[in-house]
Amino acid sequence: MNWYAIQLECLLAILAVVVLLTDAFRPVRDARRIGLILSALVGLTLLYSFTMQPLGEAVFQGMYRLDTLALFFKRLFLLATAFVLLMSAEFVERIEAGRVEFYVLLLLCATGMLVLASANDFILMFVALELVTICFFVLTSYLRRQVPSLEAGTKYLILGALSSGLTVYGIAYLLGITGTANFEKLRAVLTEAPVGEATGLWFGMVLVLAGLGFKIASVPFQVWAPDVYQGAPTPVTAMLAVGSKAAGFVLLMRVLMTGLLPLEPVWGPVVLGLAGASLVYGNLGALPQRDIKRLLGYSSIGHAGYVLMGVAAVNALGVAAVLFYHGQYAFTTLCAFLAIVAVTRVTGRDDIASFAGLHRRAPILGLALFLAMMSLAGVPPLSGFFGKFQLFAAVIDRAQMDARYYWLAGIGAAAVVVSLYFYLNVGRAIYMQSSDRTDAIPVSWPVRVGLWICMGAMIGLGVYQRPLVDAALQAARVFGLE
Amino acid sequence: MTTAFWIITIVTLLGALLAVTLRNLVHCVLSLILFFLGIAGHYFLLRADFFGTVQILIYIGAVAVLILFAIMLTRNVTGEEGPREILGMKWWSGAVIAALVAGVLLHAVRRDATAAVASSAPKPLSVADLGRALVGDWVVPFEGMAVLLTAALIGAVVIALEEVQRRR
Questions:
Q1: For chain B, how big is the Rg over CA atoms in Å?
Q2: Residue environment code for A228-259, b if the CB has 16+ CB neighbours within 10 A, otherwise e
Q3: Is the ipTM of this complex over 0.85?
Q4: Which of residues 87-146 of B touch A (CB under 8 A)?
Q5: CA-based angle A46:A48:A52, to the nearest 5?
Q6: Using the beta-carbon criterion (under 8 Å), do B137 and A109 form an inter-chain contact?
Q7: Beta strand segments in A55-101, E
Q8: Which domain holds residue B53?
Q9: How many domains does chain B have?
Q10: For the whole model, what pTM was predicted?
């Protein structure tokens, strides 16, 4: 039974080791083909994961949960990994050394994320978190001859190490005061003891929140995001935007809504504040950006704000909305980055101006990037609209009891309006501006397939949301919230 | 027992002294390993088998090897360039720090001596218990650490690889 629970992680880790050893004994000549094969294999793993059933009980001494929530996020991470590997296959020619190791590190990083989705214990959570973070330290600085990549790697390393230190310090406080690292036992201890008696408990909670806030790039732990998003190799940026962020959110929800739920009166307003601040900072900061990856970095902070709205609502609707949002955000963001990788492969530039006239040079790339931007902005009938709609519904639902939440909804609505400007700006470059270069940009068939899948999902989930909504509602039930 | 104590103490101090006085960085690390071994010997003498083993595993097996790796990837190993004076102008600040650390340690040891008598001695942790815990209750974090270390090693090699290629 125990092995059943961790089979997906084992599969990914074994795949990584096999690739590493194969390359050691028979050096790979065509790194691009390996990337495509790996992408297909991870895609097959994703399909296989749909045959798995959730386990009711936590396994490994209550440390590891394979509930519907964990499965939901595991599938999300597998999806992201498959697409990021596809991007990497298109990107790999720009890497000078260690091409195969790039895939290996991505796979190991994904392994860590899959474990994170199930972590029900601070110790396991920290180990898995470090696995993900250390892989990103190397991946962000992979293009070390390029100063931006080096800068991204250094910033991520320093701030990442700091946040890991804060997290483990906070865990030590929680562990020392409550005597347990298990989320469920922690909840039991906190329910019995009078809330707020120990200042150390608050201190520990704030430190853990800070560490997770770094992962999801929420204000005030967001400073790294724009620089790292801009400088890191594009597939790594995509993995950060989709995988790392979702991993941070699943942990945040498990920690807050299982372990620290009795302290909700304390952390509720904090999350509320973080959500509002992230919304304002991310969307205003994105306005003057000229570089598309940097723009997406700010936009990622803004989206952390939207998703935090769902977390702050602390109801079943909110959790389901968070899950749905992540599901559709994955397709949207992966679509955007896939298109960016395909374009920059030819142009070699990341600034928005270089996307001018894209619809003439490569109609499918132009369409994909345009749709992704519109979905991020939340324009109906694309999936992003419905994702935001659910989050707002959850916040309004909560606001019936607590009027402060109306303010949050108001800030969110204002942020949506502001964000339209900079997302449409990219769309304007693609369709309205002309460029002196009119040569066609070649698009390989795997990228085409990936783009069609993403675009299909964006439109499909915008029109027919039922399957993902049902899955999200079912997964949200694990917290037992109303 | 006393003879063993003195031999180990002398070896430990010698290792520590050589580690800070030798010119060649690699030699310094090797002396440092000698020092670590001496500390492990002290743990064994104190019947803290687990600490002794961990000292060897972590300090010699990981920390010293890490330092060696770092040195191998750096230039100027032999120490022929750079400041020659070891006991420079700032020797007294080092002495002050050493005295402070020694003071804190002595204070802690003296306070702890009374506490140790009062508290009942915990059940000694055998290596077998430890092994059982690592592959039993804690198997997922343990295996997670294994994957983590693999990833860190691959990452270190990738970074070093590029460095070597650039130097050529």
A1: 21
A2: bbbbbbbbbbbbbbbbbbbbbbbbbbbbbbbb
A3: yes
A4: 137-141, 144-145
A5: 110
A6: no
A7: none
A8: 1-83
A9: 3
A10: 0.87
